[in-house]
Structures are given as C-alpha cells and as structure tokens.
Amino acid sequence: MKLRNYFKKYFDAELAIILAIFYLITICLNLIKVFSTAYLKGTPMLQGENFFFQIYVLDAITVVGIMFIIAMHTKRLILKRTSWRKILLFHFFLALILGVVIQFITDVYRLQVGLLNAFDFKKSLNVFLSVIDINFLVYFAMLFIIYTYYYFSIIRASEKQQSLLETQVVTARMNMLTSQLQPHFLFNTINCIIGLIDVDKRKAQETLVDLSTFFREVTKNSNVHFFTVAKEMEILSHYLGILKVRFPENLTIVEHIDPELLEEMIPAMVLQPLIENSINHGYENSTRPLLIEIAISKEGEFINITLKNDGPPITDFQSGKSTGVGISNLKLRLINLYGNRATFTLRNKADGCGVENILKIPLR
C-alpha cells in the first residue's frame, strides 16, 4: 500500500515518456556511430548485429527503469526542499552506481550467451572506465531534463495558484463586504449611532468614524494579501469598536497578543471572519453576556491565532451552520496561500463552556 501511494504521488507519466524518448535517441545515435565506424573501416561486426541490438535493448530497459525511480525520488527531494549540495552528492553516487549496474548486467549477458568464458574483473573495469565519462554525461543530461520538467511544472503551478489566489481574495473581499453590508449590520449600527446622538454625541461620532474607517481600509487594501499583525489589529479595532457599541453591556473582548509577533505577516483580514464566527456561536441561542478572547502566539515555526468565546457549545458540526461564508472563504485562502501547511480548527472548548476557532499558519 505504501509503495502504491508513493508511486501514485511521485510518478509522472509524461516525464517518463520524455526520458524514454531521450534515451532511445541516445541509443540510436550510438548505434549509428558503431555501425558507421565498422562500415567505413570495412570490418565486420565480430559479435553480430543481433548481439548489439540485444545489448542496447537490455541497456535501455535498465537505464530508463532506473531513471524512472530516480525521477520519482528527485520529485520527493524537490518537495522536501533538500539542499542542492546533498542532491548533487546523491546524484554523483547514483551515476557511479548506475554505470556499475549496467556493466554488471552486460557482463552477465555476455557470460550467458557464451561470449565470455569467465569473468575478467580487470577487463570489465577497463571497459567501465572507458565509458564512465559518457555515462556521467548521459545521466546528468537526463537529470537536467528531470529538473527542468519539474521546475517548469512548479512555475506553471505557481502561476495558476497565484491567479486562483487573486480570484479567491477578490471573492473573499466581496463576500466579506456583502455580509457586512447586509441590512441587519448597517441598520443595527446606524440605529446605535442614532440612539447615541442625543445621549452621547462624541460616542456617536466615534462609532461613525469606526464604520467609515473600517470599510475604507477594506476597500483600500483589496489587493493586499498579507498584513502585519499590528496592521491587522489596527483595522480590527474599528470593527471591534462598532461591536462594542452594538453590545455595550453584553460583549467583552480581551486581547492576548505576543508583542514579538507584531511585525510578522499574516493573511489580510483574517481575524474579522473569526470574530464574526465567535459572535454567531455565542449569541445563537442566548442573550447573556459574552466573553471573546483573541490570542496570537508563536509555537515553533508557526503562528497560532485563537478566538474563544464562553457561549453555548456547538451541538452539530455537520449541519453547515457551524461555519458561514466568511469561514469558507478563509479556508480557501489558506489552501491557496499555504497548501496543507496551515490548519483551521473549530471545536468546543475542553470544559464544554464555549467554542474556540484555532488558526495555525507557518511563519513567513
């Protein structure tokens, strides 16, 4: 099963065909050289034409088969981002081993067909050394094809991913704006401002400024993929200011931000949908006071962003109600930005008193 999964993950049929064609061309050119030389010298092929064809067929099967395996392992090394020094040393030894294997198979074949009465190590070594430069040249030529193929594939995938990312970011922005511009959000905020005009004009003005600044920042940075933690918290403060006016007595927000992470880069506008998700869960079936904790910390080579509330736990994670449009778009953005290196977890707290959103992203 592991071998099948390895083969499925790293084998590339198109590359295998390219390598096979390249080596067959090399063999054909070599055969042309051998027979042309014999013809020009007027000397017969003492070992027979069939022998040469059989040897080259055996050689082609061996080399191409081994190069298929090397190509798969090369892809694995590229994905693991192995240092070029280790890769070069690895392939240097493989080139030697491949030459030894080919010479061994050739000698065994000669013994089988009766062209050799006994194995002669010195003669075999002499033949091996006489073609070692050609073996290295062919091996590294095929290796160049492998790396060129994979790096072009990486470039194409990167371009495709970048295009998809830009589309997803625009979509996420538009969905976020749409969700925040829904009547209930604007009406509730405007009603709060109207209610504050006669009671606290300054507070009404501050809330209106928060509303205006929040939407201005969202639209102004619509093409920005990353913010520093400090910038993210600055923009979020305007959104939180609006929420605190809407829920003056029922909502408490506590922040735990590691000061050392303020200049680290995180996906732009990543906290707003998490806050919205926490509020949706917290007030879903209750009107009691709600505590939301925002924590940003470092764990090894990752940044942990955690939002907790002390509202009612989620009873059904499969219904689709546990995440909204904002979280769905966030997951898509994480895939495009980090592949499988970033994770998002939504779960009930261990003590059963509330829900936590946990986002884990690699440090840039």
From TrEMBL:
InterPro entries in UniProt: Bact_2-comp_sensor_kinase (IPR050640), HATPase_C_sf (IPR036890), Sig_transdc_His_kin_internal (IPR010559)
Family annotation (SUPFAM superfamilies): ATPase domain of HSP90 chaperone/DNA topoisomerase II/histidine kinase
Regions crossing the membrane: 12-32, 52-72, 84-105, 125-152
Pfam families linked to this entry: His_kinase (PF06580)
Keywords assigned by UniProt, alphabetized: Kinase, Membrane, Transferase, Transmembrane, Transmembrane helix
Superkingdom of origin: Bacteria
A single GO molecular function term of this UniProt record: kinase activity
Domain Signal transduction histidine kinase internal region intervals: 172-251
Name used for this protein in its record: Histidine kinase
Source organism: Aequorivita iocasae
